[in-house]
Predict the structure.
Amino acid sequence: MSVRCLLVLAIFLSGSSLTTVADDRPNIVWIIVDDMSADFSCYGETLIQTPNVDALAARGTRFTQAFVTAPVCSTCRSAFITGMYQTSIGAHHHRSGRGRQKIDLPDGVRPIPELFREAGYHTSITGWPVRRGRFGKTDYNFEWGAAMYDDVDWSTRNDDQPFFAQIQLPGGKLRGGTQESAERFAERIDESFGTRTKTADVILPPYYPRDPVLLHDWAAYLDSVRETDRVVGEILDRLKTDGVLDKTIVLFMTDHGISHARGKQFLYEEGIHVPLIIAGPGLAAGRTRTDLVEHIDIAALSLGLAGIPKPATMQARDILAADYQPREAIFAARDRCDETVDHLRCVRTERYKYIRNFLPQRPHLQPCAYKDHKSILIALREAHRAGSLNELQERLLFSPTRPPEELYDLQNDPHELHNLAEDPAHQATLAQLRTRLNDWMESTGDQGRNPESSEMYDSDMQVYLDKLQKRDPDRAKEIAANIAQMKAWAAAGK
């Protein structure tokens, strides 16, 4: 009998509230990783081994078709902590609501730690290793109260009190953004593992050149996957040492894909496809699910595992429920990231992906200080200027404009290289997915249909500039120039 069934039976027999059977409810631990795609050996990566994540998958369920609804940190996190599309709650612009202009959640929408806490759970959020008095990464775009978290980890809970804990790991950020930082990280891996991933063995997607800088970065990225796997082992050992592993459901996921030119911030598979593994008491072991799921679903399934009613307005679905009906499609959106204004939407079915570029007169790689200072972007721009990219790489990365619509047959074109939007043979599919995306934007109240107000943009940009002015005035000057570029393009209707 499942944990959920036991909980319901206990409540029925006792006639009591949830809190009286708290010791029968499972602990729930989320391990959320930054900037990392599904590059684990249990997902088919062959250059590295990830024994701890693989073992977690072996004793639980591994989802092969899990996708984020937003390919950047704050919007993704705002979505999964509420179980809502970021576009529905006004949290769709990255790092928004940080200045004078604030974002409040709509009526009826609440962060799920509040719901867990009200149901008698101890709630926590931490990095790793645990640092007393220091929360782990939150990065929510809306106003929230720190009181929804009791502590940084579960050690301060009452006897027999179940806990809902989030553990935030830096993941792909470990390699840093420069070749120098990637090398320092690789040296650290050499010391701890005795070997690093060899650049000569790295296989890059075909839209990236085999540039030494890109190969070095990707090798360091794979080593960040190895280090993440090591830490997952430490977390599981801590749960075992504390005597709670057999009462704990562990969920492992990343907040979006690898930070790269076609990954983080974009709606291609490299940016939105993520690993998702769930294991623990009452859940089947060694199971693989290939149906389409969205990352916001972790909110609904976690509430369900704890026997906590899901709010009626929550858009997330309990993908572990007995009566769950698999999705036919998933949806994702990208809007402003830092100073860089963009507006992208996509719908993905089992076979096809449709992307709408609402600002097609802008290039794919718009000015963005966060990305432009990464060694990989500097190397790509240098290769572009030198004319050393092939036709495919030039077209996908450096075309001055973008097609208004993109359509990809993922079954035959998994790297999304060939846009079929103008192919006569695919017009019926194009029309169908265009309609499906329009219907989703309408039915979910997509707030990105209207441009961000100048007041909100200026409010957030002022905070961004103020933080950098003393620390890095040259970077602040660059961002100010990018802001001016964004406003000039908008004024020109571009």
About this structure: The radius of gyration is 22 Å. The CA atoms of residues 367 and 485 lie 8 Å apart. The chain has two domains: 3-324, 334-453. DSSP finds 14 helices and twelve strands in the chain.
